[in-house]
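Hi P.,

Sorry for the delay on this. The queue was packed all week, but I finally got your sequence through. Input first:
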Amino acid sequence: MNVNEIIKYEYNLYFPAAKPYIKEKLLDSDTYKIYKWQVALRKEEYYLELQKNNKFFLPLAFFYRRRKNKLGRALGFDIPAGTIEPGLHIWHASPVVINPYAKIGKNVTIVGNLCVGSNKGNQAAARIGDNCIFGWGWGSYW
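Then the structure:
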């Protein structure tokens, strides 16, 4: 998938129809802010990949990293680029911290209040597969 396909796919996770997007944008809701954060994440990843072959793209990668980090501070997210495959859906604005060496699969839903860390140094971080739903308190619903 290219970056535009990923962004469109993830857009449909948050806004399955046009009306909810317009409403959420006008209300400046958390859902809208989370989606805007996610667009910045995907664009940062895209430009970081492009800059490997052409340093011209490095300022764009930094621009989107700054945008992502600014939105992330407001939402409580500390998620580095390149840790989560396409299909991410975050339900709530709440603390979510992911180790830069963690690898999380496709179509993952994060409920909120989550820390994916490491107990043996940075490079021994968790590996989480595809199609998972996780976050604080999620297990209590089963």
